[in-house]
Amino acid sequence: MARRAAEKLRRNQPHQARSRATVEVILDATVRIFEGEGADAATTSRIAEVAGVSVGTLYQYFGNRDAILDALQDREFERAASLMQRTLANPDGASDRAIARAVVEGLFRLYRAAPALHRVLAVDGLRVTPAERVQAFDARIVGAIKTFLAHAKPRIRRSDLDAAAFVVYQSVRAAMLAYLIEQPPGVSEAALVDELTDLVVRYLSE
Amino acid sequence: MARRAAEKLRRNQPHQARSRATVEVILDATVRIFEGEGADAATTSRIAEVAGVSVGTLYQYFGNRDAILDALQDREFERAASLMQRTLANPDGASDRAIARAVVEGLFRLYRAAPALHRVLAVDGLRVTPAERVQAFDARIVGAIKTFLAHAKPRIRRSDLDAAAFVVYQSVRAAMLAYLIEQPPGVSEAALVDELTDLVVRYLSE
Amino acid sequence: MARRAAEKLRRNQPHQARSRATVEVILDATVRIFEGEGADAATTSRIAEVAGVSVGTLYQYFGNRDAILDALQDREFERAASLMQRTLANPDGASDRAIARAVVEGLFRLYRAAPALHRVLAVDGLRVTPAERVQAFDARIVGAIKTFLAHAKPRIRRSDLDAAAFVVYQSVRAAMLAYLIEQPPGVSEAALVDELTDLVVRYLSE
Amino acid sequence: MARRAAEKLRRNQPHQARSRATVEVILDATVRIFEGEGADAATTSRIAEVAGVSVGTLYQYFGNRDAILDALQDREFERAASLMQRTLANPDGASDRAIARAVVEGLFRLYRAAPALHRVLAVDGLRVTPAERVQAFDARIVGAIKTFLAHAKPRIRRSDLDAAAFVVYQSVRAAMLAYLIEQPPGVSEAALVDELTDLVVRYLSE
DNA sequence: AATGAATGAGAATTCATTCAT
DNA sequence: AATGAATGAATTCTCATTCAT
User: Fold this and answer.
1) Interface probe, candidates B34, B203, B204, B206, chain A, greatest A C-beta count within 10 A
2) Which residues of A touch B142 (CB under 8 A)?
3) pLDDT confidence of residue D9
4) Closest CB from C38, C128, C167 relative to D196
5) Closest residue of chain D to C203, computed from CA coordinates
6) CA gyration radius, chain C
7) Where are the alpha helices (H) located in B38-160, listed in sequence order?
8) pLDDT tens digit sequence for A112-137
């Protein structure tokens, strides 16, 4: 494992660019299969086929099938985390509600772009023994929220910031995912965003 | 042909006590495997083994592997739904907060008894095409909440009851599940219940 | 001891009748399944179900699944053989052609009543190692034909009676079976009977 | 979904020499098992084992077990059809009897090379619902015979050519098969060929 | 590096047969 | 005798992974 990682780093520049491209092609193919054919269809052969490479090549870049999901998780986590951090940074004095709405809308856009993928990632996160990666990511998000809450003006009234951040993050995420997949009749996208924004604001504000 | 296929999914519906017991033994074995060995370990042979019956017997009661999950889902759904309905019935004039806390605590007990099972069921609910059963259950729960909200004294201030009920249910469920599986450091059970109760009450009351 | 045996014999009569009836019920159920659902559907459970008895009872009368087929074969063989012998006996001086036609028509009626059954029996007869029963039956039929040919007036011109009888029997049987199952367009039942009669007569007469 | 199912049955059609060779190895192994161990012994694992490949490889070339039989059928059909067409072409003015004998002898050689295989194929042809392939083949053979009969000099006296061709083909085929498998005592190969030739000639000529 | 044929462990499912009641 | 629940060996098929070219 360590050897593989070290060897990888030694590779040269042009190769790295091409490698990077192949990796992306494979990840994109996987996402496309998730969305179009369902998670069960994402076999290594099918991924390779859709990506336009051979299985052998696929294994050149990913030690095993799970590594593809891991990479996908990393990529999506990165997007979510950077979105959160950017939004929560609160550039100019936006109102609490405006910030909350921005976060909710941003996450919603992210999830809606690939609901099946996020479903799989959520499921993965629900493993009996969650990968450290998942816990690390959650901790990072929760940390960002916590920091935000901590630095917020006296408006935040929560005392247990850990619990509050955890509750807010999981609640919003799950409601969105369930909405995108179940498509419950009688609830519009706009209504969902409104309600979630309100949920967060009321929960956090004093 | 179609007749046979349909018949297959039904199988002997057990009316004898013996049969009922065997069904329970199989369901319990499945839950035990989920909790102890993870969902992937729940193969038909392993379930039969743990249940102390033969594969043949297993298939005498369940037309195929998925039928076991379906039965488990039915069982758990029934428990959750009856809990909700019982609690929301609001026997004597309990306060909103008291009712909310009762629901949260009840669900929490239910999930804590078999987190991995509920994870699987949630995952099942996150299928790209959720079974009608799942949607029916969600609709039932959301309906119960909606009815409660509709009949609540003027204290409820939500206008979009559909969206509100959906948001409340999914949020609470997901946060609990994530908590039970990730076991985030720094958040106690009591704190979680407190926070979720508060989340619900603040979201709904005015 | 003697008393018990005597008692047994006294009870036997009605029991034997009942046993005989059960056996028939099982055989008939099997034929019905062959014709209506196909040979693959004829599992022991399905046979018992259609016969209205339990599997246990089925095994009371037939040592194993193949024994059912054997009995069916015996029954059908008996019908075919008695038909042949009756017809070939040539009561009054019927013409060769009339006799041939009678045999062809008799067999055709027999096969048409249960084509799928006769297909299975034929297939069984085509086993790499045919059961002695099959060879015995074929020998019996061929023997009957041979005897008939031998005693025919000078009209029969075949020298190798064994080969001739074998050829006649197999040819007629197979053509009929293929006809009943393939239902070739452009060939009517009447035409088939005519042609087969002519085939036989021309082959045998001088 | 349907797309995937369709794709399954096709699989990699082998164009490389290597692939072609593997396909042949598998088909030959199947025939060998039929002849030596009986049709029931031809499980996918046993075929793979005798072929000296893994089950996985077998499924790389044949979408399912039946596809192997189909391929075998195609191969044998091709041989039989080309034999018939070649022989019936009647190059120079061979006599009717000579042509008939050539056909009978040719078919006999074909069947004798793998009687159990041809038994299975005949059985397959006797399916309650024969595959279109079987009907197509039979139609092709019967068509070739019919064409031959139609173009024969005034010697052919049959009026219903469809029925005649059908009767001739099925009769000869079945008698041969029964002979090869039952090995009836008292009938030599030479006698069988003689008798069948005579059967055909007498039936058709006038 | 890339390829894709080959591998084989493992999963779901069926069904003839047994045996306690 | 009759019942039918229970058995488990056997079968088909899948798919992650390897490795010779």
Assistant:
1) B203
2) 184
3) 43
4) C167
5) D199
6) 20
7) 44-51, 55-61, 65-88, 96-113, 115-125, 132-151
8) 999 989 988 887 665 656 667 777 88
Encode A89-99: b = buried (16+ Cβ within 10 Å), e = exposed.
eeeeeeebeeb
Closest nucleotide (C1' vs CA) to C65 is E16
The strand F neighbours among A residues 49-68, by Cβ under 7 Å, are: 55-56, 59, 64-66
D41 contact C CB<8A? no
Q: Is pLDDT above 60 for C9? A: no
Closest CA to F5 C1' — which residue?
A: B57
Tokens of residue A46, six digits: 């099918």
DSSP 3-state helix, strand, coil percentages of chain D (rounded to 5)? 75, 0, 20
Q: Assess contact for A126 and A177: CB atoms under 8 A.
A: no
Nucleotides of F under 7 A from a protein CB: 1-20
Partners of D196 on chain C (C-beta within 8 Å) are 167
Q: What is the pLDDT of residue A16?
A: 74
Q: What residues in C contact D192, CB-CB < 8 Å? A: 163, 166-167
Is residue C157 very low, low, confident or very high in pLDDT (cuts 50, 70, 90)? low
Average pLDDT score over chain C: 84
> Is the CB of D173 less than 8 angstroms away from the CB of C174?
yes
Mean pLDDT, all residues of chain A: 83
pLDDT in tens, C127-140: 656 567 777 888 88
Q: Do C174 and D179 touch (CB under 8 A)?
A: no
Q: Is the CB of residue A40 inside 7 Å of nucleic acid strand F?
A: yes
Q: Is B193 on the interface with A (CB under 8 A)?
A: no
pLDDT at B19 over 60: yes
* pTM of the predicted protein model: 0.85
Between the CA of B47 and the C1' of E10, what is the distance in angstroms?
15
- Round the CA-based radius of gyration of chain A to a whole number and report it: 19
State whether the beta carbon of D12 lies below 7 angstroms from any atom of strand E: yes
Strand E at less than 7 A from CB of B45 = yes
Q: Residue B92 corresponds to which tokens in the numbers above?
A: 């004597």
Q: Quick one: tokens of D167?
A: 């009767």
Name residues whose C-beta falls within 8 Å of residue C135's C-beta, 6 or more positions apart in sequence: D182, D184
Contact at CB, D178 and C194, closer than 8 angstroms: no
Residue A8's closest CA among A23, A24, A29?
Answer: A23
Q: What is the pLDDT of residue C59?
A: 97
Nucleotide closest in space to B61 (CA vs C1'): F5
On the CB side of C44, how many CA atoms lie within 13 Å of its CA? 15
Distance CA C2, CA C149 (A): 53
Q: What is the pLDDT at residue D2? A: 33
Token pair for A15: 């190769």
Cα C144 to the center of its chain, rounded Å: 15
Spatial separation of the C-alpha atoms in residues D5 and A47, rounded to whole Å = 18
Q: Residues D130, D131, D136, D137: is their CA dihedral positive or negative?
A: negative
Structural tokens at position C128: 């790499």
Q: Which of A79-88, B35-44, D144-153, D168-177 has the lowest mean pLDDT?
A: D144-153
- Which residues 40-79 on C are within 7 A of strand F at the CB atom? 53-57, 59-60
In Å, how far from its chain's centre is CA D95?
26
Instruction: Determine the pLDDT at residue C25.
Output: 96
DSSP state at residue D205: B
Q: Write out pLDDT tens, residues D182-194.
A: 888 888 999 999 9
d(CA A200, CA A155) in angstroms, rounded, equals 13
Residue with the larger pLDDT of the pair D46 and A129: D46
B4 min Cα distance to partner chain A (Å)? 27
How confident is the model at residue C138, as a pLDDT? 80
Q: What is the CA radius of gyration of chain D?
A: 19
D130 to chain C: closest CA residue: C182
